[in-house]
Amino acid sequence: MSVSKLARAIATSPTMKLNEEARLLRERGEPVIHLGIGEPKNKAPISALLAAAARLATGDIKYSPSDGIPSLKKAIVRYTEEHYDRIVAPENIIVSSGAKQAIFNLLYAILNPQDEVIILAPYWVSYPEMVKMVYGVPVVVTPEDGSFYPRMADIERSVTSYTKAIIINSPNNPSGVMFSEEFLAQIIEFCERKGIYCLMDDIYHQLVFDGRKAPSCFQFTKKDAESTKVIAINGIAKLYGMTGFRIGWTVASRELTAVMSNIQSQTTSCASVLLQAAAEGALLGIQGIVENLRLHCQNNRDIVMADLKTLPGVKCTRPQGTFYCMPDFRAYLHPAIASNSVQLSEFLLRKARVVTVPGKEFGFEGYLRLSVAGTVKDVTEGILRIKWAIDPTSPNEIFIGDKKLVRDWL
Ligand code: PMP
């Protein structure tokens, strides 16, 4: 088959691929535990469902303005004021089909071919691929000290005259860590001094633990909405567990917003008006669900951190937010089990029927990303099964209901 060189160079989304594998196994009746996916099992907020149903009942389901329905944009203006302490105009907002499309639009809007984008490892899997999709060059910066915390010195060394943007995701997928205010202040000051866009992927910014709060990225700039290099991207997927509704947004200058709106008008036209109504309903409804999700993840984080201690040699940085943690499994990379994180993840799916995501996909070989978004039973049973599969002293066979799992690597 003849496809473009670019299309051929784009990697499959590993999480989407794993979801599909897990779905097929489950369909065959296999007792799969999903610690791979970044979505909680909650129902969508009732206010979102009612708003979408009311819109549907009108039968008036047409195109919306490319940058979003005015009432949703108004709700996002309010959200930005409340959670970022920043007053912006509706012209500073564009609504897209998920934060994913918002990031893609932005990269499309700002990059010329060969322009570089700095991506901080460990990073969300889609950043490098999206940069490549608009003919840019991803430049991955890995902390030299092996931690999950980026360092200004490493970043400054990687900046060239082609650097157009830096992507920051804090709290971070996959590591769960939240970057310090000092770091955010430094990086934003650096970007604005050098004229580099600072793309803040804030999709987890309310999913923060232990009584802490993610700082507003706009508190670190003295520039106004039209001249700042700071661009915030957010959405309802993680905030309300509404991943399937596919609504995200960007807060940027009017000029950049108009360019992105133009791009969107030539691709998807607009996000679905029905789902925009649902997003508006969620944003204007009772916000208890956000706190419930946060507490659920914090509780599961505590359980996972305690359970991981039962795996000798596995180290894990304590997440301060998100649905994820990324333990270091290098102690278990040996020929009998697996020689890298991809093989280890495959081994755990094949033998223990537990879905994990290999650290390699996030630029951190030897690690596995585990999601804590599922039920308490999922996370405890998942880690028990991982322990069974990798511990040389475990029995070779166990039964899950009437299904026999065989671990025959010794
Ligand atoms: N950014 C990060 C860091 C994510 O983890 C995700 C979802 N996994 C997204 C963006 C995309 O969000 P959405 O579902 O709104 O497209």
The main sheet orders its strands as 2-8-7-6-5-3-4
The largest sheet, given as strand count, sense and whether it forms a barrel, is: 7 strands, mixed
Instruction: Write down the secondary-structure element order.
Output: HHEHHEHEHEHEHEEEHHHEHEEEHEE
Number of strands: 14
Q: How many distinct domains? A: 2
Total count of helical runs of at least 4 residues: 13
Strand content: 5-15%
CATH class of the largest domain reads Alpha Beta
CATH architecture name of the largest domain: 3-Layer(aba) Sandwich
Cofactors, ions, other ligands: 4'-deoxy-4'-aminopyridoxal-5'-phosphate
Description:
It is a single chain. By secondary structure, this protein is an alpha/beta fold. It has two domains: 5-43 and 289-406, Aspartate Aminotransferase, domain 1 (Alpha-Beta Complex), CATH 3.90.1150.10; 46-284, Aspartate Aminotransferase, domain 2, CATH 3.40.640. It has 13 helices and 14 strands. The chain has helices at 5-9, 14-27, 46-58, 70-84, 98-110, 126-133, 152-158, 181-194, 254-265, 273-284, 288-308, 341-352, 376-390, and strands at residues 33-34, 93-96, 116-120, 137-141, 163-168, 197-201, 230-235, 248-251, 324-325, 354-355, 357-358, 368-371, 397-400, 403-406. A seven-stranded mixed sheet has the order 2-8-7-6-5-3-4, sandwiched between helices. Strand 3 (116-120), helix 6 (126-133) and strand 4 form a beta-alpha-beta unit. Helix 5 packs across helix 6 (126-133). The longest helix is centred in the last third of the chain and has 21 residues, at 288-308. The chain is globular, with a radius of gyration of 22 Å. Bound molecules: 4'-deoxy-4'-aminopyridoxal-5'-phosphate (PMP). 4'-deoxy-4'-aminopyridoxal-5'-phosphate binds next to helix 5. Residues 38, 98-100, 124, 169, 173, 201, 203, 235, 237, 243, 248 line the site of 4'-deoxy-4'-aminopyridoxal-5'-phosphate.
